[in-house]
């Protein structure tokens, strides 16, 4: 079959994220309210910042600013994870990064399936933060075995979805009809089921061990637990959520508000208590409730180098040692003040961030640089002479402390459980079936390639890694 007749993986991903958005807005009306608020604040922000609007038009992203940037699911078994990898591969989404959340009292480890190339990211940047439950972190052996048995008995993909994945792998792609069916079938895996596959008693035992275990084990599949559009002003959306009748989490995760945004800032509304029913002994249903689904927003900044990330981590730790944000929001103002104060130690202009080796940038020749014939010179000199310009590379990944904050605020306000830190990337990658892409190596390669493209003007041999 000629490859021209295949629908591109980018188009399949775009169709999938649109279908998921429509489904989730219908399932969780509060999410639709959040989307509308984000659109309104984005519009206000653009009206006040014509330069920003121009830049978005120039990069062809204006009409997509309010679209979802990510979602999240939680899987129960290695087999589910391995199959999910194959599903996402068809949509051009590959596992990047390893996140150990055990340190934060959440019994999962995770990766983010996402597009990696520049073109793919600009076509549609949708990614899915995907966690795998770690039953090994549950002390109660009997419960652990029962949970494993329940998970072993469920099937989260439709037969048709599996068949289409196999066909796509064999043929090297899907035609338009196959792609449409694929999106429809795969969507089923992410759907909410208000009828649990366990009894109320079992739910309670799982829930008592950890709320997250109940969320993963009690249902037919890994319902999408949130979607996350991009906002141009996260502080404003956070402030205005209550006016729209939605309850924001206590604080915005990540770095403080800055002139030069770094990494990722995110916040959400608190998960809703939803009515579910549990199978009882007489083959009827017992009514109960479950809390897991919410809506989130994000704002991204420059990707940091290992050195920049170490500084970020250090400053965040310092902040949290001074004020640990309480889930009920009682010390939110003090936390934000401490965050802003301590992060003064992180340079806040692009030149300083770049020269200190804290962030990743792409380099391009200016018009003057393209006309230059004077022989290769040092990067700094070339920038100084206006031959080369630089732009921050946007951070496309996640942050473990922030992710833990998002998890926690959506698992209830009670004290976090403590686990001993036990990252296990080797086991995760074995379960996944491939290794995850190292995010730092990836950003560094993008930066390096942009420097190479300036050869003739800059002496790339002397540019430090
Ligand atoms: C995932 C939480 C992590 C983020 O944006 O950091 C996440 C979850 O709650 O399953 O989505
Ligand atoms: Ni998220």
TrEMBL record:
List the InterPro entries: HGLS, YdcJ_bac-like
* GO MF, one annotated term: dioxygenase activity
Coiled coil ranges: none
Q: What keywords is this UniProt entry annotated with?
A: Dioxygenase, Iron, Oxidoreductase
| Names of required cofactors | Fe(2+)
Q: What is its EC number?
A: 1.13.11.93
User: Which SMART domains does the entry mention?
Assistant: DUF1338
Per UniProt, the enzyme's principal EC class comes to: oxidoreductase
Report any Pfam family annotated for this entry.
HGLS
Q: Which family does it belong to?
A: Belongs to the 2-oxoadipate dioxygenase/decarboxylase family.
List the protein's name: 2-oxoadipate dioxygenase/decarboxylase
What organism does this protein naturally occur in?
Limoniibacter endophyticus
């Amino acid at each position: 079959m000629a490859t021209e007749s295949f629908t591109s993986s980018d188009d399949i991903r775009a169709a999938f994220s649109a279908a998921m958005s429509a489904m989730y807005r219908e399932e969780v009306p509060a999410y639709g309210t959040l989307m509308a608020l984000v659109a309104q604040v984005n519009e206000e922000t653009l009206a006040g910042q014509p330069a920003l609007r121009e830049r978005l038009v120039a990069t062809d992203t204006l009409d997509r600013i309010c679209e979802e940037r990510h979602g999240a699911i939680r899987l129960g078994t290695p087999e589910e994870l391995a199959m999910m990898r194959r599903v996402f591969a068809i949509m051009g989404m590959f596992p990047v990064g390893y996140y150990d959340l055990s340190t934060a009292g959440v019994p999962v480890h995770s990766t983010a399936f996402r597009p990696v190339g520049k073109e793919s990211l600009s076509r549609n940047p949708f990614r899915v933060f995907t966690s795998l439950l770690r039953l090994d972190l549950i002390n109660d052996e009997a419960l652990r075995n029962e949970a494993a048995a329940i998970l072993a008995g469920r099937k989260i993909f439709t037969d048709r979805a599996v068949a289409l994945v196999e066909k796509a792998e064999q043929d090297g792609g899907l035609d338009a009809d196959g792609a449409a069916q694929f999106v429809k079938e795969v969507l089923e895996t992410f759907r909410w089921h208000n009828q649990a596959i366990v009894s109320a008693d079992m739910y309670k035992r799982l829930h008592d061990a950890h709320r997250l275990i109940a969320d993963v084990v009690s249902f037919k599949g890994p319902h999408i637990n949130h979607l996350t559009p991009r906002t141009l002003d996260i502080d404003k959306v956070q402030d205005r959520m209550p006016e729209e009748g939605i309850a924001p989490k206590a604080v915005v995760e990540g770095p403080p508000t800055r002139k030069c945004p770094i990494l990722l800032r995110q916040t959400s509304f608190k998960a809703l208590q939803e009515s579910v029913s549990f199978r009882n002994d007489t083959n009827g249903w017992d009514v109960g409730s479950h809390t897991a689904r919410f809506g989130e927003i994000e704002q991204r900044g420059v990707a940091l180098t290992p050195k920049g990330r170490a500084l970020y981590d250090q400053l965040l730790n310092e902040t949290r040692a001074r004020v640990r944000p309480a889930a009920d929001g009682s010390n939110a103002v003090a936390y934000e003040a401490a965050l802003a104060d301590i992060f003064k130690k992180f340079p806040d202009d692009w030149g300083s961030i770049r020269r200190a080796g804290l962030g990743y940038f792409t380099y391009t020749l200016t018009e003057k640089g393209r006309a230059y014939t004077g022989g290769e010179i040092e990067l700094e000199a070339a920038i100084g002479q206006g031959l080369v310009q630089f732009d921050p590379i946007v951070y496309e990944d996640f942050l473990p402390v922030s992710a833990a904050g998002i998890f926690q605020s959506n698992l209830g306000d009670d004290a976090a459980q403590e686990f001993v830190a036990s990252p296990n990337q080797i086991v995760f990658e074995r379960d996944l079936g491939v290794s995850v892409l190292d995010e730092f190596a990836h950003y560094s390669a993008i930066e390096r390639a942009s420097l190479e493209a300036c050869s003739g003007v800059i002496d790339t041999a002397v540019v430090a890694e």
